[in-house]
């Protein structure tokens, strides 16, 4: 764990174990953070190299130092993970690694502990700071922009999509009435006041889901994820695996649907009946359902509590596409 970016990686033993059978080659850690997963992979598997991607400059600096002892087996790039394909191709070209393919991909979604714990980043309702929440502090609109410019219906939709359906409109109206809201403390107080006192006494901090929803919107997390997963799966060699750890239902639904589509090839036939639509699945689920952290990990790291791990493996080469130039004459 990097001391400059102190984040305890979740389900690290499971990730390392699931990548053990993949063939020699390159693994993409698409959410590098402090490089806890990447370091564990490199230490455990001499047949693997890692390219790590993160858009947070603090994470990139910390991970670069953390992975320096591994020399050319580790490459770090600052980028959004929906540019995964471009990063892999650039690394393959610049390092002479050959074809831009990978044998593994890891997505540890959500927010890192240093981002939550550093008040100046404006992610947490537990500290009063300027509303920001950008994983890349130099790019895009901040949380303050979302809170102070979205109209009522857009705020309601955002909150409802992230589990705050019951009081989404009350919260949206309270936010609009209190504008301008410029700090995390202000926002937390507005949300707390908007929710009935009886409800506030259970279910954790009343602003938790609202802050999560705003963070997801600011960083376009659910917008980027389908493209990034698609790029990772397209680059996987036969025998390669993609591991995804999600932390809330919206992420997990999206991951599950993407992996299911990949395993069925987009089959539209009724469940339980033979496929007659011609779809061909190029992947298999390594395990059905999601894997949860063990009791020991939950005791040591409370932030692992909501983690859900899913894993998929490529079992067949990509089929030739019309016009791709790869058809056999």
Which regions contain 5 or more consecutive residues with pLDDT less than 50? 322-329
Helix content: 40-55%
Helix/strand-derived category reads alpha/beta
Overall body shape: globular
Task: Name the beta content range.
Answer: 5-15%
Q: What is the terminal-to-terminal distance?
A: 52 Å
What is the β-strand count? Answer: 7
With strands numbered from the N-terminus, the spatial order across the biggest sheet is: 3-2-1-4-5-7-6
The radius of gyration is 21 Å
Describe the sheet with the most strands.
Answer: 7 strands, mixed
- Sequence of secondary-structure elements: HEHEHEHEHHHHHHHHEHEHE
On the 0 to 100 scale, the average pLDDT is 90
So how many helices? Answer: 14
What do you see in this structure?
Strands 3-2-1-4-5-7-6 form a seven-stranded mixed β-sheet, sandwiched between helices. The longest helix has 16 residues, at 249-264. The chain has helices spanning 12-19, 36-44, 57-67, 84-95, 113-117, 143-149, 152-161, 168-178, 184-194, 197-200, 208-218, 221-235, 249-264, 295-300; strands spanning 25-29, 48-54, 74-78, 102-108, 236-246, 283-285, 308-314. It contains 14 helices and seven strands. The protein is α/β, with parallel strands linked by helices and 329 residues long. Residues 322-329 have low confidence and may be disordered. Strand 2 (48-54), helix 3 and strand 3 (74-78) form a beta-alpha-beta unit. Helix 8 (168-178) packs across helix 9 (184-194) and helix 12 packs parallel to helix 13. The N and C termini lie far apart (52 Å). 42% of the residues are buried.
């Amino acid at each position: 764990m990097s001391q400059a970016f102190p984040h305890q990686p979740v389900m690290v033993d499971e990730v390392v174990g699931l990548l053990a059978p993949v063939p020699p080659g390159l693994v993409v850690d698409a959410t590098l953070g402090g490089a806890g997963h990447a370091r564990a992979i490199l230490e455990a598997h001499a047949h693997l190299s890692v390219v790590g991607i993160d858009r947070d400059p603090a994470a990139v600096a910390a991970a670069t130092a953390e992975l320096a002892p591994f020399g050319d087996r580790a490459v770090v790039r600052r980028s959004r993970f929906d540019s995964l394909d471009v990063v892999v191709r650039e690394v393959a070209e610049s390092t002479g690694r050959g074809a831009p393919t990978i044998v593994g991909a890891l997505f540890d979604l959500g927010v890192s502990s240093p981002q939550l714990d550093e008040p100046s980043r404006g992610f947490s309702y537990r500290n009063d700071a300027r509303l920001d929440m950008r994983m890349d502090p130099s790019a895009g609109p901040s949380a303050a922009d979302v809170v102070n410019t979205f109209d009522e219906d857009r705020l309601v939709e955002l909150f409802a999509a992230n589990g705050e359906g019951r009081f989404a409109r009350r919260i949206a109206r309270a936010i609009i009435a209190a504008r301008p809201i410029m700090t995390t403390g202000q926002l937390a107080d507005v949300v707390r006041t908007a929710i009935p006192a009886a409800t506030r006494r259970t279910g954790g901090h009343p602003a938790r889901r609202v802050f999560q929803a705003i963070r997801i919107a600011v960083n376009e997390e659910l917008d980027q994820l389908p493209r990034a997963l698609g790029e990772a799966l397209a680059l996987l060699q036969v025998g390669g695996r993609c591991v995804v750890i999600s932390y809330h239902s919206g992420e997990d639904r999206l991951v599950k649907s993407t992996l299911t589509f990949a395993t069925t090839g987009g089959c539209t036939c009724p469940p339980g009946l033979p496929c007659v639509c011609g779809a061909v699945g190029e992947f298999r689920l390594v395990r059905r359902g999601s894997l949860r952290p063990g009791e020991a990990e939950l005791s040591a790291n409370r932030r692992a509590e909501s983690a859900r791990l899913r894993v998929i493996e490529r079992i067949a080469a990509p089929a030739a596409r019309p016009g791709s130039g790869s058809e056999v004459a």
